[in-house]
Design a protein that fits this description.
It is built from eleven helices and 36 strands.
């Protein structure tokens, strides 16, 4: 067993022992380091800490769990178990009688060597699925099926995608435990998991699971890196799973939902009660709902699962810029069959990558680029804590409506924007323009600068909150004849294209004329979001010299093109489709 004589201590610039952190290296493949067991306590490293904590590592034996590593962190209030062998998943979190986790039909922590991801037509991932938190990704996640890719000869080929990717069944190549030896004495379990192959993705994830002694909260903070000289698609879904006492009849998901779409016809039957749970029902098929959430001025959102009595709950808070999509999985079957719900923030929805790509929900990492994701969790064990969390979520909602779509999430995107036809080049669209011309061309391909602005109903909008869908910003005024000429075409575009795929913001330049603008909007029956510039514009929006000026921003938040002059409906559709 590893003891403190073999602990690697790193000083951060100050020699005083109060400024030291203790780093315990348990696994490092490159350095051929491996410690089978370890046990360390607050008495040894932080004797002044008020809460007695401990961290230990051990190996499971017997059956399919033979050889599985477990790192158990007890912060004096709650305990969590990290599984380095299974991609740094978290098996469960416990606090007294409360447990974050579920009772899967899969018993024991299954070693990846017993998992065949391709079995049962790509559903083999389920053979090991029983953790509280399992990451889905990294090259892809979602439903099994096929997808196109460019092979090592440069030709287009077809590949089989298995359920939820590979990362959860890859053992970590680096595992460390870091103890801060000064307040707040944060305890962190770190791990690096690599998903790489020749002529394929070269991705890794560096994860940190941390907590403070005596706290009922903990944090997951991950960074995904593309270690390739070329661009790489990626995705991550945080599949957090809960059962009783949080999930039960009349339990609820409390969230600042912006839009809710059922994933199929079965889920659509209960779309209006998507956030309400039922008692166990043997054989009831799972229901999945795809959500986008409102956020505060700092792009932070929060969701909570609370029980029927509103005296127990669990919350998660994170940035919608990092994780813009949220999936609610409800599996209300018999207890023995896996009565469970999944609260799952991610970079997309859990459908096959070939479908999600059509909707711009498959992000990319440039060469050697990284992206980070952080989620803060809290266990709520009384009515007051649940009430406080409910009020925080209500403040994020800020009176903004929740749109519940009654039809299933579409599987075809191009047809929603324009009729299917050969790809259009932006150069050809510009060449054919008759009533408009490009503007601010120096901004093409650059991230759209963010700013906050109120709509005519007093609700605050941020440009960044529309990441993940196409965005049109049309700057206009009621007194402007060319602006009025193109309004019917914007109305028709809004009528025919889903809000899940396209947002339209019409920003009036008429500062202080709220009544006039509202009257005009009502008269013209304008069905898209109308706002008034009150001086919050930043370049390039603040540098316009004529109206109407329109900015087209793609799903990655990048300015595609800006225009000056009147756009027709055909112009708008062509620009949206153009490459």
């Amino acid at each position: 067993m590893l003891n403190l004589l073999s602990v690697f201590i790193i000083s951060f610039g100050i020699s005083s022992s109060s400024d030291l952190s203790t780093r315990i290296v348990l696994t490092n493949v490159e350095k051929n380091i491996y410690e089978e067991t370890m046990y360390v306590t607050s008495e040894e490293l932080t004797p002044d800490c008020e809460f007695p904590w401990s961290v230990r590592k051990y190996i499971l034996h017997g059956g399919k769990q033979e050889g599985v590593e477990v790192i158990e962190v007890n912060n004096g209030k709650l305990t969590f178990k990290v599984i380095p062998t299974r991609g740094m998943s978290i098996y469960e979190v416990t606090m007294g009688d409360l447990r974050l986790g579920w009772d899967s039909p899969v018993k024991g922590l299954v070693h990846p060597k017993y998992i065949n991801l391709e079995s049962r037509q790509g559903l083999g991932w389920l053979d090991g699925f029983n953790e509280w938190m399992v990451r889905c990704g990294l090259e892809f996640f979602g439903g099994p099926g096929t997808d196109q890719f460019i092979d090592n000869t440069g030709n287009q080929a077809e590949m089989d995608l298995t359920l939820h990717g590979k990362i959860a069944n890859i053992p970590a190549s680096v595992v460390e435990v870091i103890i801060e030896r000064e307040e707040p004495y944060r305890i962190t379990v770190c791990g690096k998991v690599e998903e790489a192959l020749l002529h394929g993705p070269k991705l890794d994830i560096w994860t940190k699971i941390s907590t403070v002694p005596g706290s009922t909260e903990f944090q997951i903070s991950d960074t995904i890196t593309n270690n390739s000289a070329i661009e790489q698609e990626f995705g991550i879904l945080y599949h957090g799973n809960y059962t009783t006492p949080f999930m039960e009849e009349n339990a609820r998901l409390i969230s600042p939902a912006r839009q809710v779409i059922p994933i199929n016809e079965h889920a659509a039957k209960n779309a209006n009660t998507y956030n309400l749970y039922r008692a166990p029902m043997p054989g009831f098929p799972e229901q999945v709902y795809c959500l986008t959430l409102w956020a505060d001025d700092n792009d932070r959102t929060k969701v909570m699962l609370r029980n029927a009595a509103s005296d127990l709950g669990v919350s998660m808070a994170y940035s919608i810029k990092e994780l813009p999509f949220f999936t609610l999985w409800k599996n209300p079957v018999a207890i023995d069959d896996g009565y469970v719900t999944g609260l799952e923030p991610g970079t997309g929805f859990p459908r096959n990558r070939s479908i999600e790509r059509k909707f711009g929900r498959v992000p990319k990492l440039g060469p050697y680029q990284s992206r980070s994701f952080t989620i803060d969790f809290a266990i709520l064990n009384n009515k007051e804590q649940v009430k406080t969390a409910t009020e925080e979520i209500a403040r994020i909602q800020n009176g903004r409506k929740t749109e519940i779509i009654s039809t299933p999430l579409p599987t075809e995107a191009v047809a929603d924007v324009v009729p299917a036809k050969p790809a259009i080049k932006m150069a050809d669209v510009i060449k054919s323009a008759k009533t408009w011309e490009p503007a601010f061309t120096q901004w093409n391909g650059k991230p759209a600068p963010d700013f906050s602005i109120k709509d005519i109903n007093g609700r605050i909008h941020k440009i960044s909150e529309y990441r993940g869908k196409n965005l049109i910003i049309n700057i206009w005024a009621t007194w402007c004849p060319p602006c009025r000429k193109e309004i019917p075409d914007f109305i028709e575009l809004r009528r025919t294209v889903s809000e899940n795929e396209l947002a339209i913001l019409g920003i009036s330049t008429e500062k202080g004329q709220l009544g006039l603008v509202k009257q005009f909007v009502a008269k013209e029956k304008m069905n898209y979001t109308i706002l008034i510039d009150e001086g919050t514009f930043v370049p390039p929006y603040s540098e316009i010299t004529a109206i109407p000026t329109t900015f087209f921003i793609d799903t990655n938040g990048v300015i595609k093109i800006a225009t000056i002059g009147v756009l027709t409906l055909e112009d708008m559709k062509n620009i949206l489709q153009a490459q």
